[in-house]
């Protein structure tokens, strides 16, 4: 009859809309003539509930990744106490001293094998006798560099005042021995390789935070030193490189 046909039409429209929303295929609805609207209404509720899309499961919460503490760049430098055993003026540069520095390295027979290093210090230390016999700090894990044709295997650390008009060596403690590693308290790690030093620009990163503070060599305001004490410099305030 008319009432049943009307209910069936309403059911078909409801199912068509629900299927379109859920991606389900269309279903055929036949009118139920036995019980009138009291039968159709429960059927409508049941079919709409079956066709409705399921609620999506809540996304699992991701735990925040643990922060990895970065190794301070100075801790990756192989800074050692060195002793200048010989110094001579570079024959082709007015700025460079050529030096042989004992950094504790020896051959198989136990003989000292000094490193050859070039330093641009002639404007600040005009004669070789101001260098020879002096204890210094040497960065030993840099890649070999050619300075005016001279193969340099390391770098001597010096402090300078703010306008760079004065440059002085950073001095290790008096009782330190050649080859002894210079560290910063609480920042000790195995030295980086020379390739890592170059690729990650570790020397530049460390130098950006090296300072002379009241005549003491510091990294991030923490003094550098050996078992014999702190490293010092005549420059009371300035940068270190």
Automatic annotation (TrEMBL):
Question: What positions does the domain TRNA-binding occupy?
Answer: 73-183
Under InterPro entries, the record lists: NA-bd_OB-fold, tRNA-bd_dom, Tyrosine-tRNA_ligase_regulator
Q: Pfam families given for it? A: tRNA_bind
Q: Where is the signal peptide?
A: 1-26
This entry's Gene Ontology molecular function terms read: tRNA binding
Q: Which UniProt keywords apply?
A: RNA-binding, Signal, tRNA-binding
Q: What is this protein called?
A: tRNA-binding domain-containing protein
**Protein's organism:** Phaeocystis antarctica
């Amino acid at each position: 009859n008319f009432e049943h046909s009307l209910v069936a039409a309403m059911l078909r429209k409801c199912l068509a809309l629900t299927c379109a929303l859920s991606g389900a295929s269309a279903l055929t609805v036949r009118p139920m003539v036995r019980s009138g609207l009291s039968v159709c209404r429960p059927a409508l509720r049941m079919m709409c509930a079956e066709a409705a899309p399921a609620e999506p499961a809540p996304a699992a919460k991701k735990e925040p990744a643990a922060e990895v503490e970065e190794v301070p760049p100075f801790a990756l430098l192989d800074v050692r106490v060195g002793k200048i055993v010989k110094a001579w003026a570079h024959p082709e540069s007015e700025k460079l001293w050529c030096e042989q520095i004992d950094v504790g390295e020896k051959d198989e027979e136990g003989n000292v094998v000094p490193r050859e290093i070039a330093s641009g210090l002639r404007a600040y230390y005009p004669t070789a006798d101001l260098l020879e016999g002096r204890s210094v700090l040497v960065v030993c894990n840099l890649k070999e560099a050619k300075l005016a044709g001279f193969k340099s295997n390391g770098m001597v650390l010096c402090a300078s005042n703010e306008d760079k008009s004065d440059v002085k060596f950073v001095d290790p403690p008096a009782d330190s021995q050649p080859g002894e590693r210079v560290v910063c308290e609480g920042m000790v790690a195995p030295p980086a390789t020379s390739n890592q030093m170059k690729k990650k620009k570790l020397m530049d990163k460390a130098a950006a935070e090296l300072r002379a503070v009241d005549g003491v060599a510091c990294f991030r305001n923490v003094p550098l030193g050996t078992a014999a004490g702190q490293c010092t410099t005549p420059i009371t305030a300035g940068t270190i490189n």
